[in-house]
Specification:
Elements lengths: L30 H7 L39 H8 L6 H9 L1 H4 L13 H12 L24 H4 L5 H7 L24 H12 L6 H8 L3 H12 L3
Length: about 240
């Protein structure tokens, strides 16, 4: 199991809660099946004995590692930013990053569409868990204790947002985010797929993404208001 493996491993919902109780823990996934899923990653990442950085960083010790911190690897500005904000890779945010990298870190360079199937994500995370510290703690203790509620209910994603209402609500957003698509140190959020926008805002609302200002802003929004903002910004060119 400790040979080299490569790939476009999509990693990342952000800081996991340290207070997860053991009774909430569940099995992560099937390690052997995860080794097969990891073949999707082959080409960018190594894991196991002697793993080195390639197109992507090596994945040894990924659980509990601060985002964007492997010495000598050139990360995207987005991952460096999230690391400086305190994001560490835990089971929950790795699951989210595997599902949709850009929904977690909007300006990541990860060129991977994501794994749609929850079982595939769980299996590959179980496989990667072997190469982090203290694997004997699977799955009862951090960083591998898993909450039961990890995905948005379908009814939230099904809300059709009103773009005119979203424009009305957007004034607080545009004090920081520019509507012309320029970066200027703050990520652009125009022309963003609506589902990705909604997932990201709910990740801030649940304090899974670690930006304190965004957590505060998202925490004041209802599901309908988030959908309206997603419709407005998604429609901007």
């Amino acid at each position: 199991m400790y040979g080299k493996f490569w790939g476009a491993a999509a990693l990342g919902l952000a800081l996991a809660s340290a207070g997860w109780a053991e009774e909430q823990a569940e099995l992560i996934g099937d390690v052997n099946a995860g080794a097969e899923v990891f073949e999707y990653c082959m080409g960018c990442h190594e894991v196991g004995q002697g793993a080195e950085n390639g197109i992507g960083p090596h994945l040894n010790g990924i659980f509990g590692r601060t985002a964007g911190t492997i010495e000598g690897f050139k990360y995207s500005k987005g991952l460096i930013r999230e690391g400086r904000l305190g994001m560490t890779w835990q089971l929950e945010n790795l699951d989210a990053y595997l599902e949709n990298p850009k929904a977690l870190v909007s300006d990541t360079r990860m060129s991977f569409d994501g794994l749609e199937e929850p079982k595939e994500r769980a299996d590959v995370l179980a496989y990667l868990r072997q190469f982090s510290d203290n694997p004997q703690n699977i799955p009862e203790a951090a960083p591998t204790a898993r909450k039961h509620e990890v995905e948005l209910p379908p009814e939230i994603l099904a809300i059709v947002g009103d773009p005119e209402y979203g424009e009305y609500l957007s004034t607080e957003c545009t004090t920081c985010h520019q509507t012309d698509g320029e970066y200027d140190g703050i990520p652009a959020i125009i022309a963003w797929a609506e589902d990705d926008f909604v997932v990201a805002m709910h990740a801030y609302k649940r304090k899974i993404r670690p930006h304190p200002v965004m957590q505060m802003m998202a925490g004041r929004l209802s599901d309908e208001e988030i959908a309206a903002l997603a419709a407005y910004f998604g429609g901007l060119e």
